[in-house]
Amino acid sequence: MIVDINNTADNKVKNGCLRLKLYTQNNTWLSTLQTGASDYMKWQVSWHPTDDTIIVDSKDIGYTAYQITAGKNISPVIWTEELKAVADSAFKVKYHDN
After folding, report:
1. Global pTM?
2. Do residues 15 and 36 make contact, with C-beta atoms less than 8 angstroms apart?
3. In the structure, what pLDDT confidence band is assigned to residue 91 with cuts at 50, 70 and 90?
4. pLDDT digits 0-9 by tens, 30-40
5. Partners of residue 65 on adjacent β-strands
6. Which domain holds residue 44?
7. How confident is the model at residue 1 (pLDDT cuts 50, 70, 90)?
8. Buried b (16+ CB within 10 A) or exposed e, 35-70
């Protein structure tokens, strides 16, 4: 997964927001997921440690998670306390926040 910032002028709502470029383990492009998380606020993106779930924690839009199923389908998942714990831990690591 590569996280970049959408800086295209054609979508002013998503301009400056995180864009997730997803690849298979063989480095084949899978999909691009445009988030509403702004680069102007603190954020982190991480993988769940045991399944194909992407966790986004952003101080402007909150928590979101997406699961990759059948190796190609991306769908939002219901937020759980377990996902929140993973997100909070990754956020603390990224920002050195104890």
Report:
1. 0.87
2. no
3. very high
4. 999 999 999 99
5. 55
6. 2-95
7. very high
8. bebbbeeebbbbebeeeebbbbbbeebeebbbebee
* Average pLDDT for 55-75: 91
For tokens 């982190």, name the residue.
Answer: 44
Count Cβ atoms within 10 A of the Cβ of residue 82 and give its class: 0-12 exposed, 13-18 middle, 19 or more buried. Answer: exposed
Phi, then psi, of 62 in degrees rounded to 5? 90, -150
For the chain, how many structural domains are there in total?
Answer: 1
- Among 65, 66, 72, residue whose Cα is nearest residue 24: 72
Q: Which residues neighbour 86 within 8 Å (Cβ) at sequence distance 6 or greater? A: 46, 48, 49, 55
Between CA 79 and CA 66 the distance in angstroms is: 10
Tokens 């998670």 appear where? 65
